[in-house]
């Protein structure tokens, strides 16, 4: 399986797991919230909103347009911090985000 397929599969699983845990939103945030320059848009979005509205669509678009994917990913540490505060069972989601980090990392 090539890197794009790996990433694509994990993205689908992240989406399904977020939906299963009730962390998926039906209404998008205000467009301005998506324009934040802060890492993970911490000043305007919840982490799960950032994953849903920016991370997943961006990676899906890169795959569909066959653009080079990011070569490094450090999302899991942020996810760990945020998920500590959530009541939902985020173990599987955290594991999937770790898999995404791993799939995006390029070993030279």
Automatic annotation (TrEMBL):
Task: Please state the span of the N-terminal signal peptide per the UniProt entry.
Answer: none
Transmembrane regions listed in the UniProt entry: none
Annotated YqcC-like domain ranges read: 7-102
Q: Which SUPFAM superfamilies match?
A: YqcC-like (SSF158452)
Q: Identify one Pfam family in the record.
A: DUF446
Q: PANTHER family attached here? A: CYTOPLASMIC PROTEIN, CYTOPLASMIC PROTEIN-RELATED
Q: What is this protein called?
A: Uncharacterized conserved protein YqcC, DUF446 family
Source organism of the structure: Marinobacterium sediminicola
- From which lineage does this chain's organism come? Bacteria, Pseudomonadati, Pseudomonadota, Gammaproteobacteria, Oceanospirillales
């Amino acid at each position: 399986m090539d890197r794009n397929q790996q990433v694509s599969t994990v993205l689908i699983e992240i989406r399904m797991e977020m939906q299963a845990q009730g962390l998926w939103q039906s209404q998008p945030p205000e467009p301005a919230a998506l324009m934040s320059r802060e890492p993970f848009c911490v000043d305007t979005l919840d982490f799960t909103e950032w994953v849903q509205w920016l991370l997943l669509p961006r990676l899906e678009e890169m795959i569909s347009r066959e653009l080079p994917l990011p070569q490094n990913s450090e999302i899991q540490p942020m996810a760990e911090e945020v998920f500590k505060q959530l009541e939902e069972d985020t173990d599987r989601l955290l594991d999937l985000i770790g898999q995404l980090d791993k799939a995006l990392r390029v070993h030279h």
